[in-house]
Fold this protein.
Amino acid sequence: MTNTASPFHWGTTVARRRGSAYVFVLGISLIVTVLGMGALTLSRVSGKATGQGNDWEAAADLACSATEHAISYINAAAAVSPSTWRSAFTSRQTAFTQTMGRGSFSWALKDEVDGNLSEDYLRPFRVYGIGTVGSVTRIYSVQVIPAGTPLDVLRTALHSNSTVTLTGNAQAVNGPISSNSTVSLSGNVNGAIEALSTTGTAQGTQTITAPAPVKAMPSTTIFNDLQQNATVINYSSLDSGSLQNSLLSSTSNPYGTPNPYGIYAISMSGNQTLQITNCRIVGTLLITAPNKDNIQVQGPIEWEPSSGGYPILLISGSKCQVTIAGNPTWLSESACETNFDPPGTPYQGRTDTDTVDDYPPQYRGIIHIMGGSSSTVQLNANTYISGTLIADCPITTTAECTLIQNPAIYANPPLGYATGNAMAEVPGSWRWDTLP
Protein backbone atom coordinates (compact mmCIF):
# COMPACT_ATOMS: atom_id res chain seq x y z
CA MET A 1 0.00 0.00 0.00
CA THR A 2 1.44 3.27 -1.05
CA ASN A 3 1.46 6.13 1.54
CA THR A 4 0.80 9.42 -0.28
CA ALA A 5 1.47 12.68 1.63
CA SER A 6 -1.43 15.01 2.15
CA PRO A 7 -1.39 17.95 -0.22
CA PHE A 8 -2.22 20.24 2.67
CA HIS A 9 0.81 19.07 4.69
CA TRP A 10 3.21 19.57 1.75
CA GLY A 11 2.02 23.09 1.05
CA THR A 12 2.46 24.09 4.69
CA THR A 13 6.06 22.86 4.71
CA VAL A 14 6.91 24.84 1.57
CA ALA A 15 5.30 27.96 3.00
CA ARG A 16 7.32 27.63 6.20
CA ARG A 17 10.55 27.24 4.23
CA ARG A 18 9.76 30.30 2.11
CA GLY A 19 8.89 32.32 5.26
CA SER A 20 12.19 31.37 6.94
CA ALA A 21 14.16 32.39 3.86
CA TYR A 22 12.37 35.73 3.81
CA VAL A 23 13.14 36.37 7.46
CA PHE A 24 16.77 35.36 6.90
CA VAL A 25 17.16 37.70 3.92
CA LEU A 26 15.43 40.48 5.81
CA GLY A 27 17.77 40.00 8.79
CA ILE A 28 20.85 40.08 6.60
CA SER A 29 19.59 43.23 4.91
CA LEU A 30 18.96 44.83 8.28
CA ILE A 31 22.45 43.96 9.49
CA VAL A 32 24.01 45.34 6.31
CA THR A 33 21.96 48.51 6.69
CA VAL A 34 23.02 48.95 10.33
CA LEU A 35 26.67 48.32 9.49
CA GLY A 36 26.49 50.80 6.64
CA MET A 37 24.93 53.47 8.80
CA GLY A 38 27.55 52.79 11.50
CA ALA A 39 30.35 53.08 9.00
CA LEU A 40 28.90 56.32 7.69
CA THR A 41 28.55 57.72 11.19
CA LEU A 42 32.09 56.62 12.05
CA SER A 43 33.35 58.23 8.88
CA ARG A 44 31.62 61.47 9.74
CA VAL A 45 32.98 61.43 13.33
CA SER A 46 36.45 60.56 12.09
CA GLY A 47 36.27 63.31 9.49
CA LYS A 48 35.16 65.79 12.11
CA ALA A 49 37.97 64.74 14.48
CA THR A 50 40.50 64.98 11.66
CA GLY A 51 39.19 68.42 10.77
CA GLN A 52 39.43 69.57 14.39
CA GLY A 53 42.94 68.10 14.61
CA ASN A 54 43.94 70.03 11.53
CA ASP A 55 42.40 73.19 13.01
CA TRP A 56 44.33 72.59 16.24
CA GLU A 57 47.65 72.38 14.41
CA ALA A 58 46.83 75.30 12.13
CA ALA A 59 45.84 77.48 15.11
CA ALA A 60 49.16 76.62 16.78
CA ASP A 61 51.10 77.70 13.69
CA LEU A 62 49.17 80.97 13.58
CA ALA A 63 49.82 81.62 17.30
CA CYS A 64 53.57 81.15 16.79
CA SER A 65 53.49 83.38 13.71
CA ALA A 66 51.63 86.03 15.69
CA THR A 67 54.37 86.28 18.35
CA GLU A 68 57.07 86.60 15.71
CA HIS A 69 55.02 89.24 13.87
CA ALA A 70 54.55 91.17 17.11
CA ILE A 71 58.28 91.28 17.89
CA SER A 72 59.10 92.43 14.34
CA TYR A 73 56.35 95.06 14.47
CA ILE A 74 57.54 96.35 17.85
CA ASN A 75 61.17 96.54 16.75
CA ALA A 76 60.14 98.60 13.71
CA ALA A 77 58.09 100.94 15.92
CA ALA A 78 60.93 101.29 18.43
CA ALA A 79 63.41 102.17 15.70
CA VAL A 80 61.18 105.04 14.55
CA SER A 81 60.13 106.29 18.02
CA PRO A 82 62.56 104.89 20.59
CA SER A 83 61.22 106.92 23.53
CA THR A 84 57.49 106.94 22.79
CA TRP A 85 56.55 103.74 20.93
CA ARG A 86 55.06 102.00 23.98
CA SER A 87 52.37 104.66 24.40
CA ALA A 88 50.61 103.24 21.33
CA PHE A 89 49.80 100.02 23.20
CA THR A 90 47.61 99.15 26.18
CA SER A 91 48.50 96.21 28.36
CA ARG A 92 46.30 93.13 27.76
CA GLN A 93 44.46 94.71 24.81
CA THR A 94 44.54 93.25 21.29
CA ALA A 95 46.92 95.37 19.25
CA PHE A 96 46.81 93.71 15.85
CA THR A 97 44.57 91.25 13.95
CA GLN A 98 45.16 89.68 10.54
CA THR A 99 43.21 87.12 8.50
CA MET A 100 45.43 84.29 7.32
CA GLY A 101 44.30 81.30 5.26
CA ARG A 102 41.42 79.47 6.98
CA GLY A 103 41.85 81.45 10.19
CA SER A 104 43.33 84.60 11.71
CA PHE A 105 46.02 85.69 14.12
CA SER A 106 46.25 88.54 16.58
CA TRP A 107 48.57 89.62 19.35
CA ALA A 108 48.59 91.55 22.60
CA LEU A 109 51.19 92.84 25.05
CA LYS A 110 51.11 92.55 28.84
CA ASP A 111 53.14 94.45 31.41
CA GLU A 112 53.57 91.89 34.19
CA VAL A 113 54.56 94.41 36.86
CA ASP A 114 51.77 96.98 37.13
CA GLY A 115 50.01 96.89 33.76
CA ASN A 116 51.59 100.16 32.55
CA LEU A 117 53.64 99.48 29.43
CA SER A 118 54.84 103.08 29.14
CA GLU A 119 56.13 103.53 32.68
CA ASP A 120 59.59 102.07 32.12
CA TYR A 121 61.18 101.40 28.74
CA LEU A 122 63.76 99.05 30.28
CA ARG A 123 61.07 96.82 31.74
CA PRO A 124 60.39 93.43 30.14
CA PHE A 125 56.89 92.44 29.09
CA ARG A 126 55.09 89.42 27.63
CA VAL A 127 53.89 89.03 24.05
CA TYR A 128 50.79 86.89 23.45
CA GLY A 129 50.26 85.41 19.98
CA ILE A 130 46.69 84.25 19.34
CA GLY A 131 45.77 81.88 16.50
CA THR A 132 42.17 81.02 15.60
CA VAL A 133 40.89 78.47 13.06
CA GLY A 134 37.22 77.55 13.11
CA SER A 135 36.22 76.98 16.72
CA VAL A 136 39.81 76.41 17.86
CA THR A 137 41.89 79.16 19.51
CA ARG A 138 45.45 78.70 20.76
CA ILE A 139 47.72 81.18 22.54
CA TYR A 140 51.53 81.17 22.58
CA SER A 141 53.47 83.67 24.67
CA VAL A 142 57.05 84.74 25.27
CA GLN A 143 58.71 87.29 27.54
CA VAL A 144 60.79 89.90 25.75
CA ILE A 145 63.35 92.38 27.05
CA PRO A 146 64.99 95.49 25.61
CA ALA A 147 68.19 94.20 24.08
CA GLY A 148 69.75 96.00 21.15
CA THR A 149 73.51 96.18 20.77
CA PRO A 150 75.37 94.70 23.77
CA LEU A 151 77.48 97.07 25.81
CA ASP A 152 81.19 96.57 25.29
CA VAL A 153 81.66 95.75 28.98
CA LEU A 154 79.99 92.37 28.31
CA ARG A 155 82.90 91.54 26.02
CA THR A 156 85.19 91.65 29.06
CA ALA A 157 85.80 89.15 31.84
CA LEU A 158 86.20 92.03 34.32
CA HIS A 159 85.63 95.76 33.95
CA SER A 160 85.91 98.68 36.32
CA ASN A 161 84.93 102.28 35.74
CA SER A 162 87.76 103.01 38.19
CA THR A 163 91.12 101.30 38.77
CA VAL A 164 92.03 97.62 38.67
CA THR A 165 94.89 96.24 40.76
CA LEU A 166 96.10 92.75 39.85
CA THR A 167 98.13 90.82 42.39
CA GLY A 168 98.59 87.14 43.10
CA ASN A 169 97.61 84.94 40.15
CA ALA A 170 94.92 86.29 37.83
CA GLN A 171 93.78 84.65 34.62
CA ALA A 172 91.36 86.11 32.07
CA VAL A 173 89.86 83.87 29.36
CA ASN A 174 87.80 84.80 26.26
CA GLY A 175 87.68 88.48 27.20
CA PRO A 176 90.04 91.09 28.67
CA ILE A 177 90.51 92.59 32.10
CA SER A 178 89.41 96.15 31.48
CA SER A 179 89.47 99.55 33.14
CA ASN A 180 88.27 103.03 32.24
CA SER A 181 91.24 104.19 34.32
CA THR A 182 94.46 102.37 35.22
CA VAL A 183 95.37 98.69 35.54
CA SER A 184 98.23 98.02 37.97
CA LEU A 185 100.16 94.82 37.21
CA SER A 186 102.07 92.58 39.61
CA GLY A 187 102.27 88.90 40.51
CA ASN A 188 101.29 86.52 37.71
CA VAL A 189 98.74 87.66 35.12
CA ASN A 190 97.62 85.83 32.00
CA GLY A 191 95.23 87.39 29.50
CA ALA A 192 94.43 90.57 27.65
CA ILE A 193 94.45 93.99 29.31
CA GLU A 194 92.51 97.03 28.07
CA ALA A 195 92.85 100.33 29.93
CA LEU A 196 93.59 104.01 29.58
CA SER A 197 96.98 103.22 31.10
CA THR A 198 98.90 100.51 32.92
CA THR A 199 101.54 100.52 35.64
CA GLY A 200 103.93 97.87 36.92
CA THR A 201 104.84 94.51 35.42
CA ALA A 202 103.70 90.96 35.97
CA GLN A 203 104.85 87.49 35.14
CA GLY A 204 102.82 85.44 32.72
CA THR A 205 101.57 86.47 29.30
CA GLN A 206 99.61 89.67 28.72
CA THR A 207 98.34 91.40 25.61
CA ILE A 208 98.07 95.05 26.59
CA THR A 209 95.99 97.69 24.81
CA ALA A 210 96.59 101.13 26.32
CA PRO A 211 95.15 103.61 25.86
CA ALA A 212 91.94 101.76 25.08
CA PRO A 213 88.59 103.45 24.38
CA VAL A 214 86.46 104.20 27.44
CA LYS A 215 83.61 101.69 27.77
CA ALA A 216 80.06 102.84 28.50
CA MET A 217 78.71 101.67 31.85
CA PRO A 218 75.26 100.09 32.24
CA SER A 219 72.42 102.27 33.47
CA THR A 220 71.87 102.36 37.23
CA THR A 221 68.10 102.08 36.63
CA ILE A 222 68.59 98.31 36.19
CA PHE A 223 68.56 97.90 39.97
CA ASN A 224 65.20 99.66 40.42
CA ASP A 225 63.69 97.87 37.42
CA LEU A 226 64.52 94.48 38.86
CA GLN A 227 63.59 95.49 42.40
CA GLN A 228 59.98 96.02 41.32
CA ASN A 229 59.74 92.29 40.60
CA ALA A 230 61.73 91.17 43.65
CA THR A 231 60.67 89.35 46.80
CA VAL A 232 62.14 90.89 49.96
CA ILE A 233 64.27 88.82 52.31
CA ASN A 234 64.46 90.74 55.58
CA TYR A 235 67.99 91.16 56.87
CA SER A 236 66.67 90.47 60.36
CA SER A 237 65.51 87.00 59.25
CA LEU A 238 69.09 85.96 58.44
CA ASP A 239 70.95 84.18 61.22
CA SER A 240 73.60 86.69 62.34
CA GLY A 241 73.47 88.31 58.91
CA SER A 242 74.38 85.06 57.15
CA LEU A 243 72.65 83.52 54.14
CA GLN A 244 73.89 79.95 54.25
CA ASN A 245 72.97 76.29 53.78
CA SER A 246 70.12 77.41 51.54
CA LEU A 247 68.65 76.87 48.10
CA LEU A 248 67.29 80.08 46.62
CA SER A 249 65.42 79.82 43.32
CA SER A 250 62.10 80.56 41.64
CA THR A 251 60.58 77.60 43.52
CA SER A 252 62.57 77.66 46.76
CA ASN A 253 62.88 80.40 49.37
CA PRO A 254 63.69 79.33 52.95
CA TYR A 255 62.78 82.84 54.14
CA GLY A 256 59.30 83.17 52.67
CA THR A 257 57.33 82.83 49.47
CA PRO A 258 59.34 81.88 46.37
CA ASN A 259 59.62 84.56 43.71
CA PRO A 260 58.48 83.29 40.28
CA TYR A 261 61.29 85.22 38.58
CA GLY A 262 63.93 84.10 41.07
CA ILE A 263 64.61 87.73 42.08
CA TYR A 264 65.25 88.51 45.76
CA ALA A 265 66.20 91.74 47.53
CA ILE A 266 68.06 92.33 50.82
CA SER A 267 68.35 95.83 52.29
CA MET A 268 71.09 96.65 54.78
CA SER A 269 70.93 99.73 57.01
CA GLY A 270 74.59 100.80 57.19
CA ASN A 271 77.61 99.41 59.03
CA GLN A 272 76.22 95.89 58.76
CA THR A 273 77.79 92.65 57.56
CA LEU A 274 76.17 90.21 55.18
CA GLN A 275 77.78 86.85 54.48
CA ILE A 276 76.65 84.51 51.71
CA THR A 277 78.14 81.01 51.82
CA ASN A 278 77.35 77.31 51.35
CA CYS A 279 74.42 78.05 49.04
CA ARG A 280 73.06 77.18 45.67
CA ILE A 281 71.37 80.19 44.11
CA VAL A 282 69.44 79.99 40.86
CA GLY A 283 68.33 83.58 40.54
CA THR A 284 69.16 87.23 41.04
CA LEU A 285 70.06 88.80 44.38
CA LEU A 286 69.74 92.58 44.83
CA ILE A 287 71.60 94.04 47.80
CA THR A 288 71.16 97.62 49.01
CA ALA A 289 74.19 98.71 51.05
CA PRO A 290 73.71 102.42 51.87
CA ASN A 291 76.76 103.18 54.01
CA LYS A 292 79.93 101.31 54.97
CA ASP A 293 78.35 97.87 54.79
CA ASN A 294 80.48 94.75 54.44
CA ILE A 295 79.34 92.09 51.96
CA GLN A 296 81.21 88.79 51.94
CA VAL A 297 80.48 86.25 49.21
CA GLN A 298 82.42 83.17 50.24
CA GLY A 299 82.38 79.84 48.42
CA PRO A 300 81.52 77.11 48.10
CA ILE A 301 78.57 78.60 46.20
CA GLU A 302 76.99 77.40 42.95
CA TRP A 303 75.27 80.46 41.47
CA GLU A 304 73.51 80.93 38.13
CA PRO A 305 70.61 83.08 36.87
CA SER A 306 67.04 81.84 36.95
CA SER A 307 66.59 83.46 33.55
CA GLY A 308 69.08 84.40 30.87
CA GLY A 309 67.54 87.86 31.02
CA TYR A 310 68.96 88.76 34.44
CA PRO A 311 72.35 89.14 36.18
CA ILE A 312 73.06 87.03 39.28
CA LEU A 313 74.17 89.71 41.76
CA LEU A 314 73.61 93.46 41.87
CA ILE A 315 74.90 95.58 44.75
CA SER A 316 73.97 99.23 45.06
CA GLY A 317 76.03 100.85 47.76
CA SER A 318 78.16 103.66 49.10
CA LYS A 319 81.49 103.13 50.84
CA CYS A 320 80.76 99.41 51.05
CA GLN A 321 83.36 96.68 50.99
CA VAL A 322 82.62 93.69 48.78
CA THR A 323 84.76 90.56 48.92
CA ILE A 324 84.22 87.58 46.66
CA ALA A 325 86.01 84.26 47.08
CA GLY A 326 85.73 80.69 45.90
CA ASN A 327 86.66 77.48 47.62
CA PRO A 328 88.66 74.40 46.63
CA THR A 329 85.97 72.30 48.33
CA TRP A 330 82.78 71.62 46.37
CA LEU A 331 79.34 72.55 47.68
CA SER A 332 78.12 69.48 49.57
CA GLU A 333 74.47 68.61 50.15
CA SER A 334 75.34 66.29 53.03
CA ALA A 335 77.53 68.88 54.77
CA CYS A 336 74.84 71.55 54.40
CA GLU A 337 72.00 69.09 55.12
CA THR A 338 70.18 70.56 52.12
CA ASN A 339 68.93 69.10 48.85
CA PHE A 340 70.16 71.59 46.24
CA ASP A 341 68.42 70.02 43.21
CA PRO A 342 64.88 69.11 44.30
CA PRO A 343 61.97 68.91 41.85
CA GLY A 344 61.42 72.42 40.52
CA THR A 345 65.10 73.43 40.65
CA PRO A 346 67.08 71.09 38.41
CA TYR A 347 70.84 71.11 38.08
CA GLN A 348 71.86 70.51 34.46
CA GLY A 349 68.38 69.14 33.82
CA ARG A 350 68.42 66.68 36.71
CA THR A 351 66.54 66.59 40.03
CA ASP A 352 66.38 64.15 42.92
CA THR A 353 65.19 63.85 46.52
CA ASP A 354 68.45 62.91 48.25
CA THR A 355 71.28 64.87 49.88
CA VAL A 356 74.33 63.11 48.47
CA ASP A 357 75.35 65.41 45.61
CA ASP A 358 78.26 67.85 45.33
CA TYR A 359 78.45 70.96 43.11
CA PRO A 360 81.43 72.88 41.70
CA PRO A 361 81.85 76.29 43.36
CA GLN A 362 81.36 78.89 40.63
CA TYR A 363 79.62 82.15 39.82
CA ARG A 364 77.94 81.92 36.40
CA GLY A 365 76.59 85.24 35.18
CA ILE A 366 76.93 88.99 35.59
CA ILE A 367 78.02 90.44 38.94
CA HIS A 368 77.51 94.21 39.02
CA ILE A 369 78.53 96.62 41.81
CA MET A 370 77.13 100.10 41.32
CA GLY A 371 76.81 103.32 43.30
CA GLY A 372 79.96 105.24 42.48
CA SER A 373 83.65 104.91 43.18
CA SER A 374 83.52 105.07 46.99
CA SER A 375 83.14 101.29 47.43
CA THR A 376 85.75 98.57 46.87
CA VAL A 377 85.69 95.07 45.41
CA GLN A 378 88.26 92.43 46.28
CA LEU A 379 88.56 89.01 44.67
CA ASN A 380 90.17 86.47 46.97
CA ALA A 381 91.48 82.93 46.53
CA ASN A 382 89.79 80.44 44.22
CA THR A 383 87.31 82.90 42.76
CA TYR A 384 85.85 81.42 39.58
CA ILE A 385 83.54 83.68 37.57
CA SER A 386 82.08 82.54 34.25
CA GLY A 387 80.45 85.71 33.00
CA THR A 388 81.46 89.30 33.66
CA LEU A 389 82.29 91.27 36.80
CA ILE A 390 81.37 94.96 36.42
CA ALA A 391 82.02 97.65 39.04
CA ASP A 392 81.83 101.42 39.28
CA CYS A 393 84.49 101.25 41.97
CA PRO A 394 88.10 99.97 42.22
CA ILE A 395 88.69 96.20 41.91
CA THR A 396 91.61 94.30 43.42
CA THR A 397 92.50 90.67 42.80
CA THR A 398 94.50 88.66 45.32
CA ALA A 399 95.76 85.08 45.38
CA GLU A 400 94.33 82.94 42.55
CA CYS A 401 91.25 83.91 40.53
CA THR A 402 89.89 82.76 37.19
CA LEU A 403 87.73 85.08 35.09
CA ILE A 404 86.03 83.63 32.01
CA GLN A 405 83.96 85.83 29.72
CA ASN A 406 80.80 84.06 28.54
CA PRO A 407 80.10 84.70 24.82
CA ALA A 408 76.44 83.68 25.28
CA ILE A 409 75.88 86.68 27.57
CA TYR A 410 77.34 89.05 25.00
CA ALA A 411 75.23 87.48 22.24
CA ASN A 412 72.03 87.80 24.33
CA PRO A 413 72.58 90.80 26.62
CA PRO A 414 70.39 90.94 29.74
CA LEU A 415 68.01 93.74 30.61
CA GLY A 416 69.81 97.09 30.69
CA TYR A 417 73.13 95.83 29.32
CA ALA A 418 72.60 96.94 25.74
CA THR A 419 71.97 100.09 23.75
CA GLY A 420 69.03 100.63 21.46
CA ASN A 421 65.45 99.46 21.73
CA ALA A 422 65.37 96.12 19.90
CA MET A 423 63.38 93.46 21.71
CA ALA A 424 64.92 90.06 22.42
CA GLU A 425 63.16 86.89 23.46
CA VAL A 426 64.07 85.63 26.93
CA PRO A 427 65.38 82.06 26.56
CA GLY A 428 63.14 79.52 28.29
CA SER A 429 60.16 81.89 28.57
CA TRP A 430 58.12 80.43 25.67
CA ARG A 431 54.92 78.72 26.80
CA TRP A 432 51.42 77.72 25.68
CA ASP A 433 49.18 80.14 27.50
CA THR A 434 45.71 81.54 28.08
CA LEU A 435 44.38 84.94 27.08
CA PRO A 436 46.17 87.73 28.99
In short: Confidence is low (pLDDT under 50) at residues 1-16. Residues 7-80 form the longest helix (74 residues).
